[in-house]
Amino acid sequence: MTLFHQCIPCIMKQIQSLIEILGLPPGEAMAVMESGMRMMLDRGDSITTQHILRQLYDHIHGTYFPNLDVFDPFRELKRDANLRVSVILPSFEKVVAGADDPFRMAVRGAAGGNIIDYGAIPQGKVSIETEVARIPQLRFAVDRVEELRSRVGGSRTILLIGDNAGEILFDALLVQEIQRLNPAAELYITLRHAPIINDATLADASFLDLHPGVRVISSGSIYPGTILAETTPEFRQLFGNADMIIAKGQGNYETLLHEQHPGLFFLLRAKCSPVAQSLGVSPGDLVVTRSPELPG
Questions:
Q1: Cα–Cα distance measured from residue 118 to residue 198, given in angstroms and rounded to the nearest whole number
Q2: Burial class (CB in 10 A: 0-12, 13-18, 19+), 87
Q3: CA Rg, the chain, in Å?
Q4: Cβ(296)–Cβ(144) below 8 Å
Q5: Which fold has domain 74-290?
Q6: Residue 175, CA atoms < 13 Å, CB-side half-sphere
Q7: How far is the C-alpha of 38 from the C-alpha of 260, rounded, in Å?
Q8: Rounded distance, CA 55 to CA 61, Å?
Q9: CA neighbours closer than 13 Å in the CB half-sphere of residue 62
Q10: CA triplet 222, 228, 233: central angle to 5 degrees?
Q11: CB within 8 A of 173, min separation 6: which ones?
C-alpha cells in the first residue's frame, strides 16, 4: 500500500516507541525523530511504511550501535510474547479441539493472534492473556473461511507467511489443523530474514511445536512485510509454485495485496484506518479474504 496521511502519526509513534526501548538520551532521541521526519518528507512516490521503517532501523544501527552484529531492539519483548503465548496456548488448543468446527476456530485464533503487533499497537498496550481469552467470541467481518478450507483440501503445496512473535504459535496450531484436513500437503512457514519491530525471524522458530514434515525457512524479507521483489530467489520460486498461500497480518497484506496469485489468502486483524477502509471493515475486525486484484 502507498503511504497515506494517517500513516505519518503511526510511524512517529513507532519511532517514539523505539526510542523508549533503546533508552536513547534526549539529544540522540531528537536526532532520530528528525531523521524519521526527513525520510517521510523525502519519500518517493513508491515508498511505503515498510521502506521508511527499514531505513530508520539501518540508520540507528549504523549511527548509534555500529558494533552490534544484529540490531534487534525488540528481542526481549519478542521472547516475552513467545513465552506468554506458549503458557496459555494449551488452554486454547483445548478450545480448538472441543469446538464444533476446529478448523474455523484455529483460523480465528491465527487471526486473533495478529493483535500482538507492536508496530500498530505499542508494547504494553496489549494484554496477550485477555486477547486470547476473547478469541472464541470473535467473528470475522470478512469471512471466506470456507474458501480457505476448500483450497486447503485441494492443495499439494501450502505456504504460510508468518508475521509477529507470539502470533506465530497460533499459526503453528492452524498448520496442525491444515495437516488434519490434508495430510499429504507439503507445508512451509516463512519468517523474516532480519529483525524489524516484533516480526518473527528464524530465531523465534524454536518456540514452534511442529510436525517434522513442516519446513520453516526465511523469506529473505528485511521489512515488516513481504516486498516480493526483495525476497530470496528461493522464496519467490516457492511463492510462485505454491498451490495456496496464507499471508498473515497487516504488513503482509499491505505489501502483497496487489499480487494476483490465485491461491493467495490474507488472514489478519485490521488495526488502522487505511487497512480497514481498504477491506471495508472497522479497526479491530478479523478478516480472512482473497486478493482484491482477483476477479470474484
A1: 6
A2: exposed
A3: 18
A4: no
A5: Rossmann fold (3.40.50)
A6: 30
A7: 34
A8: 10
A9: 6
A10: 90
A11: 89, 92, 93, 96, 106, 109, 110
Band the pLDDT of 295: cuts 50, 70, 90.
low
Tell me how far apart the alpha carbons of residues 174 and 177 are, in angstroms, rounded to a whole number: 5
Q: Which three cell numbers stand for residue 34?
A: 528528525
Amino acid present at 189 = I
Alpha carbon separation from 143 to 125, 260, 262, 267, 281 (Å, rounded)? 27, 20, 17, 10, 11
Q: How confident is the model at residue 252 (pLDDT cuts 50, 70, 90)?
A: very high
- pLDDT tens digits, one per residue of 141-166: 999 999 999 999 999 999 999 999 99
What are the cell numbers at 250? 497487516
What is the Cα 242 distance to its own chain's centre?
19
Q: How many residues does the chain have?
A: 296
CB 13 within 8 A of CB 122: yes
Partnered with residue 159 across adjacent β-strands are 188, 245
Dig out the grid coordinates for 127 from the structure. Answer: 494484554
Residue whose C-alpha cell reads 511445536 in the numeric block: 209
93-123 pLDDT tens trace = 999 999 999 999 999 999 999 999 998 887 7
Contact between 187 and 160 (Cβ < 8 Å):
yes
d(CA 81, CA 200): 11
Show the cell assigned to 164: 509477529
